[in-house]
Design a protein that fits this description.
The chain has 572 residues and is α/β, with parallel strands linked by helices. It is 41% helix and 13% strand. It has helices at residues 6-16, 62-75, 100-108, 138-141, 143-150, 154-169, 177-187, 193-199, 204-219, 259-276, 296-299, 304-317, 336-339, 355-366, 375-381, 418-426, 429-434, 443-448, 475-493, 505-509, 527-539, 544-558, 568-571, and strands at residues 23-31, 34-44, 52-55, 80-84, 120-125, 132-134, 247-251, 288-292, 322-328, 344-347, 386-390, 402-406, 473-474, 517-518. The strands form two sheets. Strands 2-1-12-11-10-3-9-8-4-7-5-6 form a twelve-stranded mixed sheet, sandwiched between helices. It has a two-stranded antiparallel ribbon with strand order 13-14. It is globular and about 80 Å long.
Length: 572
């Protein structure tokens, strides 16, 4: 390191960051204390789905870095998802104004700066903020993620998975928290005693713990998040009419009171995308880039199942064209299995005020390739807006480590005016789709015999009279569901055109009194089994057994993904 001249170090960096394809411009290299705008530091756009880490102590500029990267991704036509922890990323919707200080910085790194706005969509969890409300159904969220929010232990998590299994098996849709509570109460009642025994492993004491945790969630106001209309994660993949990627900014004004919900919700988004997106292979640019701020919240006190699911998602979602950047203070905040998947590193300054800080510093240095810098000294002396960078080049090899003065954002580094945010939300096409909560017919109504009360045009959902444990089935609606699922199995799983007709308008209008009777579900009889049986009839007797098996597996297992998540879109 001491044997190289400044010119040799400069040549190494220039060669290492000479790239052929489209890039994200990060800044200019600092070598031996001098800024060299003729040594630009870049990140290949095609390597953004190899994931990354933006780390550094509080106040060193991590949020500004992801702000700057999001702008360039949008300009390149790549949609971006940002979690707005501190409330200052809304500034992407407002053009920045120049100043002498800003001009001196941008000219020093060779940045042709001009203020501009970017296409931004504002979301809010359950309507907790100014953005378009984002909701998810309990069934879609799944037992693993829900256990994470309720901080259940492994035994309680396994029991909750059995409850979800029972609900899936018996056609009981878990839309909101009252639906889940109704199913658990049914299983622990005299009427549901036999069903509970069939499940095995679900004690009344454990059911009581889960019910108490549900009450706690409701007391925290989380019932607003669970419900319909459920947010379609495909909305995150949109581009603006001018071809720029839409930047989706999730407002989190009450993060400090609900940190677990925030981190778990982000993993639900990723899991849903993972299940829906097709394999894409190597792309010139990603389909979407996620920036997960406060990433340590994902991993604190996480269960083994949750950590395994995160690792699997991060490893495999790359091939679907999605890049994930974890934003946190030190690499130690991220488990080794996940950290090993993060090829792109932007490390802001670290502090070494305590022995624990010193250990974190040494651990951080050990994760970088050999370089011409004394990284312990460099990382403790780097200024605000400077970072040590190494990324994956177009050949899949790490670039040389470079201390970099980062580019300045071209939109406001702070919140936009609240009136602008409100007007942007009011003009959003998503507001009409997701703005009004609805209460469709689901497990609570089926088990209690009450009628649902849809409250908006988005109401659709289940048809009253679907199968319930111990209750009658109204066959017309169920038959339509069975036919639809049978067609889907033939077309998507067996790979052949379906011979089953679409439901007629007369069938859709049929009243419960006109519908033929259907059997009550028992231990070995469920809607999934009916699907397989009817599909077998469509294909012929020789395939009946196979079809029933496929239908059963589809209904009970395949609908749930790596986090135990499910989606009504995937079930149709």
């Amino acid at each position: 390191m001491a044997n190289k001249t400044t010119a040799e170090k400069l040549a190494t960096l220039q060669k290492g960051y000479t790239l052929e394809g489209a890039t994200i411009e990060l800044g200019a290299a600092i070598i031996d204390g001098e800024l060299h705008k003729d040594a630009p530091v870049r990140l290949p756009l095609s390597m953004m789905n190899r994931h990354g880490l933006v780390a550094g102590a509080t106040g060193t500029g991590k949020t500004v870095t992801l702000h700057m990267m999001a702008e360039q991704l949008s300009t390149a036509g790549v949609p971006v998802f940002l979690a707005d922890i501190k409330g200052d990323l809304s500034g992407l919707a407002t053009a920045a104004t120049g100043s002498e200080k800003l001009t001196a910085r941008t000219e020093g790194i060779g940045q042709a700066w001009q203020g501009r706005t970017f296409p931004v969509e504002f979301l809010a969890l359950g309507g907790d903020g100014n953005g378009v409300p984002v909701r998810a159904t309990v069934s879609s969220f799944g037992p693993i993620l829900l256990s994470r929010i309720m901080e259940l232990n492994d035994t309680q998590e396994s029991s909750l998975q059995l409850v979800f299994y029972f609900a899936d098996k018996n056609g009981l849709e878990l839309i909101d928290l009252k639906d889940l509570r109704a199913v658990i109460q049914f299983l622990t009642s005299a009427e549901g005693k036999d069903q509970l025994e069939e499940l095995g492993g679900l004690s009344k004491a454990t059911a009581g713990v889960i019910l108490r945790e549900l009450v706690s969630l409701e007391a925290q106001g989380l019932e607003k998040f669970f419900g319909e209309p459920e947010f379609d994660t495909a909305e995150l993949l949109r581009t603006a009419p001018d071809g720029r990627g839409v930047i989706t900014c999730l407002e989190l004004p009450t993060l400090q009171t609900k940190p677990m919900l925030f981190s778990t919700f982000l993993m639900w988004l990723l899991a849903d995308l993972f299940e829906d997106l097709p394999e894409a292979g190597d792309l010139d640019k990603p389909k979407l880039v996620f920036f997960l701020d406060e990433a340590h919240l994902l991993f604190n006190d996480a269960s083994k199942a949750f950590l395994e699911a995160i690792t699997t998602t991060v490893r495999l979602i790359r091939s679907k064209g999605v890049g994930i950047f974890f934003v946190t203070q030190t690499p130690k905040d991220v488990p080794a299995e996940v950290l090993g998947q993060l090829a792109n590193r932007v490390q802001h300054a670290l502090r070494a005020f305590t022995p624990e800080d010193a250990k974190a510093l040494k651990a951080t240095v050990s994760t970088f390739p050999m370089s011409d810098y004394d990284l312990e000294e460099t990382l403790t002396s780097a200024g605000i807006g400077e970072a040590v960078i190494t990324v994956m080049n177009e050949k899949g090899a790490p670039t040389p480590v470079a201390l970099t003065r980062l580019r300045a954002p071209e939109s406001v580094m702070g919140p936009s005016d609240e009136a602008l945010v409100r007007s942007t939300v009011a003009g959003s096409a998503l507001l009409a789709k997701y703005g009004t909560a609805v209460d469709n017919h689901s497990a609570f109504e089926k088990l209690s015999g009450k009628a649902a009360a849809p409250t908006g045009p988005a109401a659709g959902g289940s048809v009253p009279g679907e199968s319930v444990p111990g209750g009658p089935v109204q066959g017309g609606a169920v038959q339509d569901d069975v036919d639809a699922e049978a067609r889907r199995i033939e077309e998507e799983i067996l790979g052949r055109p379906s011979s089953r007709p679409a439901p007629s308008a007369e069938t859709r209008r049929r009243t419960p009194a006109e519908s033929p009777p259907a059997p009550r579900p028992g231990a070995g009889d469920s809607m999934a089994g009916d699907i397989g049986g009817m599909l077998g009839g469509a294909l012929g007797g020789g395939l009946k057994s196979m079809a029933r098996s496929i239908g059963t597996q589809l209904g009970r297992e395949l609908l749930r993904g790596v986090f135990g998540t499910s989606s009504r879109r995937r079930r149709r």
